[in-house]
TrEMBL record, chains A, B, C, D:
It comes from Pseudaquabacterium rugosum. Its cofactor is pyridoxal 5'-phosphate. This is Diaminobutyrate--2-oxoglutarate transaminase. InterPro entries: Aminotrans_3, Aminotrans_3_PPA_site, Dat, Ectoine_EctB, PyrdxlP-dep_Trfase, PyrdxlP-dep_Trfase_major, PyrdxlP-dep_Trfase_small. Its EC number is 2.6.1.76. It holds the Pfam family Aminotran_3. Keywords: Aminotransferase, Pyridoxal phosphate, Transferase. SUPFAM superfamilies: PLP-dependent transferases. Belongs to the class-III pyridoxal-phosphate-dependent aminotransferase family. The gene is ectB. One of its GO terms (molecular function) is diaminobutyrate-2-oxoglutarate transaminase activity. The keyword Transferase applies. Signal peptide: none annotated. Pathway: Amine and polyamine biosynthesis; ectoine biosynthesis; L-ectoine from L-aspartate 4-semialdehyde: step 1/3. The keyword Transferase applies.
Length: 457, 457, 457, 457
């Protein structure tokens, strides 16, 4: 078995300055299982980051591991380009049966380069091809990736890197609620597109995330989203929904757009679609929009067969009925309750997001940073989102156990309390004897969690 | 063990029209080992495509399989974003020791999204950031990927899809030899960049493949390449070498630029860098060019730890000394000899490329297509490259056995002969008794191959 | 003396389909003086179009004619490129003394190609050069010209011609009032620019017309304009004010921004700056923004000396004190009053604009077209503006006589009444004996006008 | 009569740094007639710049002056937008009769904004509209103006100002002879456009000047130009010829493309089209390419009626037969002979251009600058062209008298001799008694000129 020493000097010496997360979480991770991470010295963290949403089923799901090992042992293909292969066939069958069919979707599956940004690139190119137009409506705080096509649609100025006029073809529009509750930004878009002199060119597509993962957990309401879909239809534009972070059950339903009552033309999936953290991405294409010519958009790693193997397990294991969704909803309720308790400790703080994609807006990135650093010291890996990284984002595996969820939330609560210098709520005052205080879950939280999640286990 | 039925209807029904290779190679592949592919019915093909260059060490290398299974069994991380992880550390150490150090390179390693196009996107953004310029010189028939930044630099009109002004920032220049042997296109570039009124904006970078993989196996000579490097330096532009297809030993040396006597500022690697066909890409950055800010260019799957595990095995197994390179050279000689024999059978045909990245220009894509279809029927997976897909490209695993190499070349030779309606050379006249003619290696070829490759085995 | 026959066939045969105004005003104009136009058959029209705002002092001002003839007779230069010439010197001196100095402006004068669009092109290039940024904020319904740089900032979709991604570098923002009275679009801009994740790149400039001439006479309020100026300053962007149509006294003050309490970095002037309808344009540049290198932005006709001659007369004759401005204000009051009377005749109609740049929004372009055609038949040349050409725009010479103003307004009123099929207001019921009804001014209007304008004559 | 004092301080104080020519020619010009310029102090210069080619018939042609004064006196329109007016009608008739018809052209006339760059903008937009493509092939050292659309096609880096990706839609190609006599750049273009993988998008247009005015007097041969026209036709691209500087007789024929045997789709004219130096421009459009919608491309000063008046005189006076062209040819021969004499005085110097658009390449911009400054001191206004301003460009009025032409060339010859420190050729050794040496024509040159031009007077 491979052993790793904890010395980190090679990263300073040899890895590019582009590295990011490792600066905050500065240790050598060597093992992970379920919702827990371990470093080379055996130290443990609860994982509230979940591979940035690529580990919705946790680390090293035993069934997926077994299937993947079996695939390797029987010399299944690893890379398959876009050849027909067994695992791809099986994935397609299961995905069609358990994901598409029950939701009334007849979309075709396009396997793109195995990252979210590649799927978005494919979507934008297809929308432009189908419509013969160039303009794409994208939204404030939208995040769609960092390759140039997707980056043009991404709001984050840090990632945009001042590439300026090299990022053409996008008209930015305010997301729902951007200007506060009194301003309907869908009406605004309708007015702009109806006005032949507004200067907004007829769009090839409207691209959005129903819940903005990196942008700060802003979420679209059912009414707004339907208005957007109507606007797209009325103007002959394709509706592209980016489900890269919010999809695969993150908000409870498989797709985050499901409860919003729309049917997108194109749907981008990545991150958790493989179920195991393996690189994979796909674009769902409404059949009449599938106007690709053979190999027009290509790429070597479109056929990551290891990912297809684990993805098939994930679909079969978690999505044959709605019990998994119910479990997400129950955990989400717990998260809401605990975040509300924390919000009460931070002046002006408030909750954002939905499902297991919720967070706490603490007012500033500096404060969030202090809380997150303290949480890491106490055994919790968790990150922030939003324009200034001011939203502490709870992104747990969707099947996290009641105990770990409660423990993680308790650590976060303590980190908030300690950073703010405020007392913990009463219920958390008595640590359970014999366990170290740092990772001590609040007693009531644990009890509540166990009760809540009993049937979802 | 997972069994797959050979029915292909699900692909027609559910996979996007964007699929390509599977149309030519229309069967269900289920197993692969070394240089052989097998379908659901047990039919065998020799693999002269090698995952489009992502399988330089063949399918399912036993040592890599073992290491990967061990990693999974000990619950190593799958996705690691850009966290410090054990496999990443080990890869960095081995890559620095066995690849960079012996070649006098002190570049830093940037892990990008796990596809070649993502590495190119990172390179272009960095070059533009470092120089404050926007223009990039790219070459006729260059191929760098299909996300919008990389696509702007890609020559292929089919892939460019008429996206037009959405692909800004690139000045196209003729590659070496584009206008025939009498025209030095490096001198042309020098003249254009020295002329303040040429209309060519000062470049941020010059981007090229030393051997153009998709563009038709056009190769840069040492003199031309050094001129290009001097021009880049003289004008303050970064030299970016795309080693996505030609790197990792494909031409014999680890990097295809090694024999050309240049030191690029940025080097993109992908395809075979994981050794096993797993999605992975990286950008090598000269330290003084490493002006990234933390997480400025990011992406979830930058840390494919499964790929790091196999990549480490690949480096350690194949690149500790030059014996592997010698083996490539020996196989390459054999390929040259056999392709020359085939060239003699096709009026006007000639050889292109170098190392195990050689091909036969047969004059038209239509002819190549007929030959390739016949080869596939006879048990050989092989593809074409070039503007019209008129160059039959031999892209075997670099460690293909003498017997399989000879057998594959023999199939190809027969396909050429049958398509052209010309007799085989004499040495191939007598099939070995007891084996089906279709996959019958030419006797002399086998003998020659065995002799040639004896010491490289 | 040159005689012209009224046959128009040569235009159909030989002039491009791009011609526009002549389709509505389909006769051969041969003479013009003051506020009147005459065709080859001697028919007369009152001119409420005024060369689209390029004839603020009317046609063939006698003093300008005399000065121009003298210039020609003494063999003064016609074209002077950017040489120092006498007329240019004199214009500079008078413009500095009578226009810039009294308004506390110390801007430098850049002579650009002699059209408004060329001045805007120069402004955008300079702003981008000074700031090193690429993005320019421009507004819905803004109109800045049709060359590609200016066109990118122009809202009109018809003029944008689907040139798409060839019009880069502009972020469109809603002008004041675009979303109705309750929505402050300056606050919106402030929020977007303060948000590092809004996707709006830091601007090189904010470009706007204080009164949108072609866009439908939308006007910026003092408070909104000051907010915009503050936002520009706060973000290091240049404030560019397009005074091409609204400047040179059109709204009463020389610059339309004067009453709004801002000092733009760059100010574009054209149309009436020559005073006589001769092609001329200039860009006023705040001295610290004057970072041009010699001849960096050039053009042969920057030095139209005939225009400088008449421009000097215009400045000296009309702008030595504020009597001219007062006359504009008095005429504007009359226009307001009469347009209000017309508004009462058209369901839903309302007034727009200010000064002698007012109009009547009649609800649809189709209705406006019918009114305008009828007005033309009755002896009035007048046009519409707005996204659908639904705003009838009164753009008289600024020194139009009381009688002609009243007569023109009366024709317009009748055209409205006849088109709508409603009776004229009572005061217009009795035509003056002996004059044809069509061009009969409303008696009360004439009386009112004479009284109102007595001191401004 | 207006008097101007020679003090220049107002220009330093108030004119933008963008001013250029006036820095070299630093005096106050107040009068001009024919081929002579005079400053406020009565000093005289011979004009070898001719308004940068906008004064092909010299300053203040008496017939044009008379016609213009008459037009003003009879209150003809100045600005006419695109209304039908008498002078426009007359110009159209004469231009069709004397210019288009004799050359077999049935193009329609589009009046654009009155500068060359505006005509080019219109041409590019129309070509993109007609073809539905975006790419335009433009050439090294091409000069088409400085508004953003035209600037994208302009080679000069100084004028391009690093606007970078804001100048999209142009592929640069080497002009004829750019890589020396052995390299056929038309063949190169053919190869690039025939290659689907060259990376050059199918063009909407090919845009070029048959003689590059600002780019250094590079000229296209008949064979090369015809190849370019064939390539355009073969690929469905429009051929746009920029005749802004080379047209209106500058090279002898009315259009510089006439002797080259091609029929462009679009032809841009400006500069000397008004004949008098007044701002005017037009685009000739092959009827089947005239796909403009009404007012799609507009602009206030498209109808500069003063310019139409003088343009009509110019056509009628100079282009009813070929005597004017013959006069140009005779003067051009003289210029050639004298420039050859000068070339013999400057090591490495050689002649460029044709007609009265010839120049002397003296090897460096620094040397040219010294010669030009000396020439100005001695009474000659003349400029340089080329990438480094290293080509001294003789751009006289086309009807310059024999005496002035000889005198100007003599001044230039002396300036060359004095700058290089070499003796004048023998024939110029004896100044004529009683005249100041500075403006002393070489005796033989004058005699030769008188003889040569006797019949052309």
């Amino acid at each position: 078995m491979q052993q790793y020493r904890s010395d980190l000097s090679i990263f300073q010496e040899r890895e590019s300055e582009a590295r990011g997360y490792c600066r905050r979480f500065d240790t050598l991770f060597t093992r992970a299982v379920g919702s827990e991470l371990f470093d080379a010295d055996g130290r443990r963290w609860i994982d509230f980051l979940a591979g940035c949403g690529s580990l919705n089923y946790g680390h090293n799901d035993a069934d997926m591991s077994a299937a993947l090992i079996a695939h390797i042992q029987q010399q299944g293909l690893a890379v398959g380009m876009d050849l027909h292969t067994g695992p791809k066939k099986r994935f397609l069958e299961l995905f069609a049966r358990h994901v598409l069919a029950p939701r009334g979707l007849n979309h075709r599956v396009m396997f793109t380069g195995p990252t979210g940004t590649n799927a978005i690139e494919a979507a934008l190119k297809l929308a432009r091809k189908v419509t013969g137009r160039h303009n794409v409506i994208a939204f404030t705080n939208g995040y769609h990736g960092v390759s140039m096509g997707a980056l043009a649609a991404t709001g984050n100025g840090y990632n945009r890197m001042g590439q300026g006029a090299l990022l053409p073809g996008v008209t930015r529009h305010p997301f729902e609620g951007y200007f506060g509750p009194g301003v309907d930004t869908a009406d605004m878009l309708a007015q702009l597109l109806d006005d032949p002199s507004s200067g907004i060119d007829k769009p090839a597509a409207i691209l959005l995330e129903p819940v903005q993962g990196e942008g700060g957990l802003n979420q679209a309401s059912r009414g707004w989203m339907q208005r957007i879909a109507q606007i797209a239809q009325r103007h002959g534009a394709l509706l592209i929904v980016d489900e890269v972070q919010a999809g695969c059950g993150r908000t409870g339903s498989f797709f985050s757009f499901e409860p919003l009552g729309v049917v997108p033309d194109l749907i981008a999936l990545s991150k958790s679609i493989s179920g195991y953290g393996l690189p994979m991405a796909l674009l769902l294409v409404r059949p009449d929009r599938d106007q690709w010519r053979p190999a027009e958009h290509n790429g070597t790693f479109r056929g990551n067969n290891h990912a297809f193997v684990t993805a098939a397990v994930a679909i079969e294991k978690y999505w044959q009925d709605d019990s998994f969704s119910q479990g997400v909803a129950q955990r989400a309720s717990l998260v809401t309750r605990e975040l509300q308790a924390m919000a009460a400790m931070v002046p002006g703080a408030y909750l954002k997001g939905r499902g297991l994609m919720q967070g706490l807006h603490v007012g500033s990135g500096a404060l969030a940073d202090r809380i997150l650093r303290r949480a890491f010291e106490r055994g919790l890996v968790i990150e922030a989102a939003g324009p200034e990284d001011e939203v502490i984002k709870v992104l747990t595996p969707l099947n996290i156990s009641a105990a770990l969820l409660a423990e993680g939330l308790s650590i976060l609560q303590r980190a908030v309390a300690e950073t703010l210098g405020v007392p913990l709520p009463v219920r958390a005052a008595q640590p359970v004897a014999g366990r170290p205080a740092a990772s001590q879950p609040a007693a009531t939280a644990v009890a509540a969690a166990h009760a809540d999640l009993a049937q979802a286990a």
